[in-house]
Amino acid sequence: MTEAENLVVLTDIHLKRAGKPVLDSLSLSIPHNSVTAVIGPSGVGKTTLLELISGRLKPDRGYLLVDGLSVPDLGRRELFELRKKMGMLFQSGALLNDLDVYENIAFPLREHTRLPEPVLRQMILMKLELVGLRGARRLMPAELSGGMTRRVALARAIVIDPVMVMYDEPFTGLDPISKAIIVKLIRQLNSTLGMTSIVVTHDVHEAMQIADFVYMLGHGKVLARGTPEEIKNSQRDDVRQFLQGQADGPVPFHYHADEYLTDLMRTDSEKGGAV
Amino acid sequence: MIIALRRIGAFSLSSLAATGRACILLLQMIVNLPAVVRRYELVIKQLYRAGVLTLPVIIVAALFVGMVLALQGYNTLVDFGAESSLGLLLALSLSRELGPVLAGLLFAGRAGAAMTAEIGLMKATEQLAGMEMMAVDPVWRVLLPRFLAGVISVPLLAILFTAVGIIGGYLLGVNILGVDQGVFWATMQQGVDFQQDVMNGLLKSLVFGVLISLIAVFMGYDTSPTPAGVSKATTLTVVLSSLGVLAMDFSLTSMMF
Amino acid sequence: MQRQFVEIIVGLFVMVGLLALLFLSFNVSNINSATVSNPYQVSARFDNIGNLKVRAPVTMAGVRIGRVNEIRLDSASYQAQVVMDISGKYKKLPVDTSASINTQGLLGEQFVSLEPGGQQKYLKNGDRIRLTQSAVVLENLIGQLLFNNSQGANE
Known about the structure:
By secondary structure, chain A is an alpha/beta fold. Chain A contains ten helices and ten strands. Chain A is 36% helix and 23% strand.
């Protein structure tokens, strides 16, 4: 693949947090108009990846291009300009608590544009219709269910018609129906609006359903890449363990500890903090 | 022993670093001042929440403080046959010290803590990160209106505290203790200097306003995004801004009077 | 609707605060007498000014006509040089006006009292009042009294 086909290109990215390497020579690229899933166990640096792409973190080393711009080198103003082309769906939704659904979706428009109120209203109702929540526009975030919150957040992420939408764990903590709705929406946005999507998740089943390409991360590296079919047929033990959800395997069940017997035989008492 | 020393060292280093971050935040907010002028309605909303909602506490507290001052002052002054100076005593102690300081302390407890908790919660629930992703800088959209509202509110509240306190003292002193009404106001007007006493008190409260609001906003913004972090930050706001107000009051008093 | 309500309440809050400031300035403090309108300066030298302070009132026949602007030691004569702002309303003070430092009540604040002379020429900006009487220092007075008493007893 050449540069021109890829919206996001990461090359040899290194990042340490609190002295521990989170990303270790990570390279991946995300093509235009595709749905790319990044899967892997929790704590493997998937969310960190999104923070890098959106410029909220800077890598220690490596190149990171988004739409031809080197994100770590951008000034604050340029970064904000770039972010107007990005939408992001947070796991929690990140809706503003003191605004209702309608005002939440209006927020980016009101901040960045001076559109007259009727135009604003049409744009907002269009996006609300898309996520099926036109009737819920006067509810406050506290009155929404988990699935609805995420759909509102999705409507807000796409209200400024971004080139790219990043989804941070979009399926976590949802009931099967809500999950199916989100899956449908991501696919639909990609095909009808031509948005590039990056889905970071540990829900293998849903990821395989929607993705054109899948990257599996582990130990700060890409363990496997390819179409969903290729990933499913991977022969690597660590990939198979994750896909099939086995408790023990190359990723150990036990957190690193002393040998069990010697630990049991020790006589010094454990002193923990009291609640 | 060594551990204790190391803790002291680590503590002072981390507080120094926090002070530095707070100053940087202050600079960032000052740089963003022109942007907020166009969106003054954001400040109005915060003025309502920080200033207006603190008003009842201020008025009730000021009435009681004024009455207690009148009672105590009267009991002491009457021994010297100087109860005519009650008005002066009230006006001077309220405008110079009690108005600014108590209004500051009450504001820190009522509005400062709420600011910290609110901003901390917004951070913990990714609302601030979400804003950044929408290319909106939380420093000017969230922090600056609250900071400005605090800076404007505290002097207003302090002046109100002084005025209501004097009225409270007047009610008790004149109506119940029997100080002559004319003498009450006359000694006050003779002894209180507008520049020296009222304006300096106002200046003090402005400094307190900046201090409390900066601490409140910074603590919320700098908190670790967990429930424990937010509750710790809220406590710290009240403790630090109260101590800060008292310490600052001492140094300002020694400079002014 | 909601926003308008908030705006009105906040406006009210600011108004009440400013009213309180007005109350403090006019009802509680002496703002109207603290500033001297359209002043001209007159100086005087005293042997001893006692406890006179800057901003102390300057009166004539008990009426406040100005205030003390500056106090310094004149290093040539070792006298205190007191500069006063006199209100422009009182332009016609004779050049032979005399100044003395008095005390309000027994222990009150000290102030400068001017006693008009009889000449037809009037003091101008920067002029000096030549006739002065120093502050009465209570301690000296008591000392003198005791001294006189003891002298009387000796005779």
